[in-house]
Amino acid sequence: MVRENLVVGLDIGTTKICAIIGELKGDDQVEIIGVGTCPCEGLKKGVIVGIESTVEAVRNAIQEAELVAGAEVSSVYVGIAGSHINGVNSHGVVAIKNKEVRRTDIERVLDAAKAMPMPMDREVIHVLPQEFLVDDQGGIKEPMGISGIRLEGKVHIVTGSITSANNIRKCVQKADLEVENLVLEPLASSEATITMDEKELGVALADVGGGTSDILVFTQGSVKHTSVLALGGNNITRDIAIGLRTPISEAERIKKRYGCAYASMIAEDEMIEVPSIGGRDSRRLSRKVLSEIVESRAEEIFRRVDFEIKNSGYKDLLASGVVITGGSSIMEGMTEIAEEILELPVRRGLPLGIKGLIDMVNSPLYATAVGLVLYGMKREAPGSLNSNHGFFQGVQKVIKGFGKGFGKFF
Fold it and tell me: Taking every pair of C-alpha atoms in the chain, what is the biggest distance, in angstroms?
């Protein structure tokens, strides 16, 4: 049965595919009505390396979500991540034609901001407005109707590999679904886990997934920096497998059940059972040893995160600290090691602002998929979830409409 007001978020992750169906209610609240997940081995560090296995996992996740929701879906908002993602700040300047800012002036200034050299193998994923200036008067979020002579626009442009983006679209289409939009995964996660107050005061998001760790920095309510690290939970799993001499599958199980990223939290006498390789007998080892292995890799991840945040130039402006999310953030001790390395307040990001199947999605594992639903709802009903961003959603629709034409400039 096809129902209106449904938006589907599809998180194509390195370790799993997650589909979430949301329905927009009359009170501008999003109700989660369907959830489906499926393990996937078709990706490596966020990039598709196996089309058929990914297509099958997408089908299975969507079918499970449809069964729970009792509804059929035909289109999805799809997350994109990977080390090929790049973000850069840019700005454009135009003359205001009629001494008052109109929609065409905004289009032209965004066009000017986007007209920058770009390799032929890359495409624009997002153009995220930061602020507008009219005759050097800055801090303007909605310039429509303001009188002036010169309009400047500051934006954050996110680009990605055309090949990687096309492979995602191909997998979704082969699963008999239409791609409504590709959405940067940490941007989607921020929709679900970070409040507007935090974005205004300054906050960094670290989405620690299986194959990558994605970083997003907000100040004054807009995105200032994005980056992707080719490190994640899979690196921790491999370290455990090598350090404890146990199969990868057992290392993953041990990580989820006993893993702790802050070794000082573990008692010296706490023991765990570790299966051996090649049919050898299992061994009893100290959980402290396991935690020291995990802590070493977690420390490396957050040192890299800290470097990226410092490199952005905004670390001193992050009054709200850091939010960590993604499947790997669930592990015990992750917030503690993150606070120690980053020297900022850290909290774990859970999906916010939703109703319905909250118990099923109340985990960092589902932050991206829930965020994709919220992102889709904003695009289809501008301002309904966040009136402060109504204008920016309108700009995004304008960009979507004429963005394809920008290709000739690059």
Answer: 81
